[in-house]
DNA sequence: GCACATAGTGTCAAAAAGGATACCGTTATG
DNA sequence: CATAACGGTATCCTTTTTGACACTATGTGC
């Protein structure tokens, strides 16, 4: 179970907002869910996308997402081990949320990714 | 400054998602921002909307939101004290995010508010 | 004087989240 | 045998967040 921010969510008209945040607010969950939007990924594949994410933390967050029914974990009987993660149907419904978060972040938190070879200088008022 | 989930946000394409979550993920921030969408509110007015929210926590979260430029705090030279909170222009840009969070929460986390007088029984499979 | 209204602040403790490290299991290969 | 690949787990520690409690400021009315 993800973090329990609120023991009960019948507090006010805004509670659904908090309820959703309760599902996705662990460190790395947002970006993990975002990556899985584009398709199934294996553990290390995911991890390589996440700079500075430890194995321990990734495992924890994935297990919580799985427990909350947002992520599906498929174990293949192979050696070396092969485990794939994908969004559940329920997890897929988070797409509008994730895209909204991404859009806002790009506009207000960090500069968007700049494709290689396309460098643009931006002057920031002193 | 709100919680520092990530020291740096240049880690991957999904980082804007984490960047936005970093701004709004304190307990009560989501629901506070949501309420302020509909207009300016005073401290206790806000608090009455938030079941179980302590004065201390509300103050803390409001101060963080203010520091991050999402909320404007207006102090009136009156007694009793009168302080009003409202969304900044920057805070207003979070509307799509907040509405997406609310929509998902209503559909997947909790039942939506039922207007008084309109009671509907829902059977949950054992 | 006291009580009331409003909106806090300071401080410490408890709870929760995140981090570090060592270790594990399986099979395949040289 | 050692090493590699992959995806973990256990355990303890550190840091952060939240909660509890006491206290604060101002003017007004009784």
UniProtKB/TrEMBL annotation, chains A, B:
Q: Which residues form the HTH hxlR-type domain?
A: 15-113
Q: Which UniProt keywords apply?
A: DNA-binding, Transcription, Transcription regulation
What Gene3D superfamilies does the annotation carry?
Winged helix-like DNA-binding domain superfamily/Winged helix DNA-binding domain
Is the keyword DNA-binding in the record? yes
Q: Which domain of life is it from?
A: Bacteria
Which molecular function term from Gene Ontology is one that the record holds?
A: DNA binding
Identify this protein by name: Transcriptional regulator, HxlR family
The organism that produces this protein has a lineage beginning with: Bacteria, Pseudomonadati, Pseudomonadota, Alphaproteobacteria, Rhodospirillales
